[in-house]
Write a structure and sequence with these properties.
Elements lengths: L1 H14 L4 E2 L2 H8 L11 E3 L4 H14 L3 E4 L18 E4 L6 E5 L4 E4 L5 H10 L4 E2 L11 H6 L15 E7 L5 E3 L33 E8 L1 E2 L3 E9 L5 H13 L8 E4 H5 L7 H4 L7 H11 L4 E9 L1 H15 L4 E6 L1 H13 L4 H20 L34 E6 L7 H18 L4 E5 L7 E9 L3 H20 L21 H13 L19
Parallel strand pairs: 2-4, 3-4
Antiparallel strand pairs: 1-2, 5-6, 6-10, 7-11, 8-9, 8-10, 12-14, 12-15, 13-14, 13-17, 16-18, 17-18
Length: about 550
């Protein structure tokens, strides 16, 4: 405790009392979590620049006080702003929120950890730059860098986000400031256009890791395209999704479909517009099949919905539309291709039919379509956070989605994120492995599979639970553990994990993790930055 007290005193001398916080209310806020895993920090440190980060690292090392860096602490479902253990000093980088450079000619920006999706999107529009950023559905106030360092993905052709990083600035555990790629050469004019530099490529060491604290990075953006269409594909029966995946895979492989397609089951789509219907369910969990069918019918969805965007010139998008229709013609999918002219016509029809059931359903679909087009252009929308509130008591908070914060709103959510090969049979197998486990523990299986590259699907299986029901929290933990272990055992290894699963990635006799441990020991021998077994991360992505 004496070391902690000395460290706090030194940090207050460096940052000032107003940026070193340890009052109970603030600590409670940072301990809030969607994931049923909560730890209480020693204090919150709020640096304003890289030099201050380096200074506070020096103090932490001198007094052996662990640090846990976050971007904005909105890593929903994976740990939020919580460290691996009690007593860490949270390094909250949200005040480091400058857009350091924006280059329209070469289509990149340089950002700090606190830059949010909303901030960059507004910046590009206000400065009339002909660029679109890639956007996720995690909400407008989530950190771009946090999600990138987690190796998260979005929606656009730039959706595999880490592939768009060109050069990092970071602080090591001894306080040294390092620039990766060509950035460590003061004369370099190419640091933002070629990511690898010369010599070993080390940027990946600072994703999903505790090797250092990233304080800025270059990010490539997508040039605005002449045309943008969206397509929705409804698949009525569960098994019929497999041939759809197999029909679309060649279009991803040959570049016809460049964006990240998302495939959601019925409950994933339904949960975007409502919360768990407790009265209709009559106290039964998971959702009774007859109630599920009622919600499906009311929402006009099938067992699965595929959603994706088409980008390019008018001719390129027209060719892609034809290719999608041709590929899906032999399947049982109902394909709907949308442009904004069609949305405008549908909105006019919804106004004419206002007050009717059909008019209301049409208006809801138009609103969804508008949100999708905004996402495709890099304009974030909080409506896609609604699924986090599925089992929350009281449903969606007043004013949702404005200021939505699932952790502070007492939502319960655990994510398991397996990566199957992009084959219909693998999608069905993952679902078949997970569904009986969810049902046995009384939870509704929300699942999304995203075509995160040309060959793989990124799955997100959501255990949504009532965070205020102690018995349900325990069931959720048990369900999560069984799902996680099942995916690991069957070879569908997750692409990212929550705090509760980091130690489970090492089988105990794994040369890869031994190597990672050696690198960690060399860079941080005192184990100051996010200490854990091998990895703990700067990704509370938000």
């Amino acid at each position: 405790m004496a070391a902690s007290g000395d460290a706090l005193a030194a940090w207050r001398r460096q940052l000032g009392h107003e940026r070193v916080l340890d009052d109970p209310v603030t600590l409670d806020r940072y301990a809030a979590s969607t994931s049923s895993w909560s730890t209480r920090p020693l204090a919150i440190l709020r640096p304003h620049d890289t030099a201050e980060v380096a200074q506070l690292v020096h103090v932490a090392r001198a007094h052996r006080v662990p640090l846990y860096p976050i971007s904005t602490g909105r890593n929903w479902g994976y740990g939020d702003a919580c460290a691996l253990a009690d007593g860490h000093a949270i390094v909250d980088l949200s005040a480091m929120n400058r857009i350091l450079e924006a280059n329209a000619e070469l289509a990149y920006v340089v950002i700090e950890p606190g830059v949010t999706q909303r901030q960059l999107s507004q910046y590009l529009r206000e400065h009339e730059l002909p660029l679109w950023m890639d956007c996720t559905g995690a909400g407008p106030d989530t950190s771009l860098m946090g999600n990138i360092l987690e190796r998260g993905f979005g929606h656009s052709p730039y959706g595999n986000r880490f592939q768009s990083v060109a050069g990092m600035e970071l602080v090591l555990a001894d306080g040294e400031i390092v620039h990766t790629g060509f950035g460590h050469y003061p004369s370099s004019v190419n640091r933002r256009v070629y990511p690898y530099g010369v010599g070993p490529y080390v940027d990946g060491l600072f994703t999903q890791s505790n090797m250092g604290i990233v304080t800025s990075l270059g990010l490539w953006l997508m040039p605005r395209t002449q045309a943008l269409n969206h397509f929705l594909c409804m698949v009525r029966e569960h098994e019929d999704i497999a041939p759809v995946i197999d029909a679309l895979r060649p279009l991803r492989l040959d570049g016809t479909l460049r964006s990240i397609l998302h495939i959601g089951n019925d409950l994933r789509v339904i949960s975007g517009g409502t919360t768990f219907p407790r009265e209709l369910a009559g106290g039964r969990v998971p959702l009774p099949e007859e109630v599920r069918q009622q919600l499906r019918t009311a929402s006009g969805v099938g067992a699965w919905t595929v959603s994706g965007a088409l980008y390019g010139s008018d001719a390129q998008v027209a060719a892609a539309r034809r290719a999608v229709r041709r590929a899906l013609a032999p399947t049982r999918a109902h394909v709907q291709l949308l442009d904004e002219r069609k949305l405008d016509l549908a909105a006019a029809a919804a106004r004419l039919l206002k007050g009717t059931g059909f008019g209301k359903r049409l208006a809801a679909k138009v609103a969804l379509g508008r949100s999708l087009f905004e996402m495709n252009r890099g304009i974030p929308n909080g409506r896609f956070l609604a699924g986090a509130y599925w089992r929350r008591r009281g449903g969606l908070p007043p004013g949702f989605p404005a200021d939505a914060n699932p952790a502070l709103d007492r939502c319960g959510m655990l994510w398991v994120s397996p990566v199957p090969p992009m084959r219909g049979e693998d999608l069905l197998r993952v679902h078949a492995l997970a569904e009986p486990i969810f049902r046995r523990h009384g939870f509704d299986l929300f699942v999304t599979f995203s075509m995160i590259n040309e060959r793989a699907l990124g799955g997100v299986l959501t255990v949504a639970y009532d965070a205020e029901d102690a018995a349900e929290v325990q069931r959720a933990r048990t369900c999560y553990r069984e799902i996680f272990d099942t995916m690991m055992a069957t070879g569908y290894i997750p692409y990212r994990v929550g705090l509760q699963s980091m130690a489970d990635l090492d089988s105990g006799n794994d040369g890869y993790w031994r190597m990672v441990g050696k690198i960690k020991a060399a860079l941080d021998p005192a184990n100051i930055i996010a200490p854990g077994r091998y990895s703990a991360r700067q990704h509370p992505c938000a």
